[in-house]
Amino acid sequence: MKRCFLHFVANEETIRILTQQNELEHHTTMKQFICQHRKIVQYFGYLLLPIAGFWLILLAMPAQANCEGCLCPGDPCRLCPLPAMESDTVRSDEPEICARIRARVAPTSAQPGANDYFPSLDQSVAACVGEGGDVIRNRRRSEEFPSRFYCKPPAPVITR
């Protein structure tokens, strides 16, 4: 039988006193009672964890459904992939900054990770920042956003 650790520890003197008073049986019964309740609390913890996890998932679902930011379907920020690839087609509604980056840094055919890819990426990032854009790292690539980095065009400044 497994031993159940109690919140208190009986020293030898306590056990001797309980034995003398014939209350050792009561003490043993109390230990079994506490052990049984401790198991119930432990099983409750096993049940509580999945319920809390499911509840958190339900809370997160609306946040995923309402995509915010630039890497959302429909390309709300009109991002430019960095570096420009030779296989990419030029969009008709491409922002001016994308055309200027493409003019300063020739599109590359090198795949990410190749030696020729990194100098092109560095030059594209420098051109984006030099034109006033922001560089966005894409950690979750998809069909619509396959590149690792994008240039976000600067927001137009509205003057009165």
Task: Put the structure in a nutshell.
46% of the residues lie in helices and 7% in strands. The chain contains four helices and three strands. The chain has 160 residues and is mainly alpha-helical.
What are the key terms here?
160 residues; mainly alpha; three-stranded antiparallel sheet; 46% helix
Question: How would you describe the overall organization of this protein?
Answer:
With 160 residues, this protein is mainly alpha-helical. It has two domains: 12-65; 80-152, no CATH class. It is 46% helix and 7% strand. The protein has helices spanning 12-20, 24-65, 96-104, 117-130; strands at 80-82, 134-137, 149-152. The protein has a three-stranded antiparallel sheet, covered by helices on one side.
Topology pattern, helix = H, strand = E: HHEHHEE
What share of residues are in beta strands? 5-15%
Structure class: mainly alpha
Arithmetic mean of pLDDT: 76
> Could you name the ranges where pLDDT drops below 50 across 5 or more consecutive residues?
4-8
Number of contiguous helices? 4
Q: Globular, elongated, flat, extended or rod-shaped: what is the shape?
A: elongated
